[in-house]
Amino acid sequence: MADQDMSYPTSPLLSAYECAICYDHLARPAAAIIQRKELCQDCFDAGIRPQFEVHLLDETAVPRWHRIEITIEDVEHQFDDAFVIGYQVKKYEYRILPKYRVYCAARVQGGPCGMFIDDKHYGGSQAVCPCGAKTCKICDSIIALPPQEHVCKTTANATLDAFSGQVRGVDYQLCPNCDMVVNLRDGCNHMTCQFPACNATEFCYICGEAATPEDGHWTKDRFCPRYGLPARLEESNRYNVTELSALKHIPTVSQAFRVVARVNTNLVREGAVPAGDLTARAAHPEAIAVWTYLEDTLTLATRALEKLPRAISQHPAVLEKRAAIAPAIRAVFQAGIAQDDIHALRRFPAIVEAEAALKETIEQLPKTQMLEDIIADLRRQSLSLSLVHTRVALDD
């Protein structure tokens, strides 16, 4: 297997090649030819060989050249016989879905053997390891007694045990084909399984059902959002903030109006402007200052109202209730309700309960205080920006 591939041109005019990675011109033969591209030995050792070594430990890290898999047969002359055989054995293991693999359950020299020994689809109910131990292909436990006396144990799923107390569809999800666990911190809920044996199964992170962009799973009015956690399914998703749309009801704005009224009254009382002379009052420096203050406050309040829905949707209490919708959606689909039957989906008890809890949580949030906090934050940002502009002006 380690013999050099001699299928290279022998013409003197073609005795040199350009490495596809470093672009050096070298004498043939090249170290390897991958997808009709010739590579030198240094570049192969630095960029290709490590991919095969990593793939022995991580089945999702498939060796690739321009997104196309490199097979061991393409480059087997670069490896010794032991590596090639070991790699081919691993590739056979990787072609089997993880849930159908049988690993030796014996303990050898104080530690687990763990060798891959069989496929659950074939060869009876037990698998024999080279270490001599027998493993049950049904319950994955060691067969210590004669096979006819073995009783399968009901064992907990160790993988799922690690996610005890977490919410499926939020903290983790299982591929619907191979049952492997995936995590998503943030981003698109369209998932593609990375295990080679799974053949790139596409599914939804929220509900765990098989789904592709083409089948409309994440279209408008569907339960599962394309991005982020589920939200309420009502047409209006403004989180019941319309009662705050009158800016004067916001404390900061009310206070600004009171300041304007007090300054105007004082200007007349102190004789600074004649009573009823709106033109004189509008031109007075103090009146100009307070009206500018009021306009700035109204601008900040308007921006705060625009930011409030997002602040509500990201509030920890709301996130917790939104997360609870994910398993409810999965329960809907497991009950056999069609994904496009929106009316039936919305009447499903788990969904009704989850959405009611979310609505109640949103209604109980201290929205007025949240608005005040947003306004204060916007004011700080505005002040910081003004200071930056001042420094720039001074520097100029």
UniProtKB/TrEMBL annotation:
CDD domains: Rcat_RBR. It comes from the Eukaryota. This is E3 ubiquitin ligase RBR family. Signal peptide: none annotated. One of its GO terms (molecular function) is ubiquitin-protein transferase activity. SUPFAM superfamilies: RING/U-box (SSF57850). GO terms for biological process: protein ubiquitination. It comes from Septoria linicola.
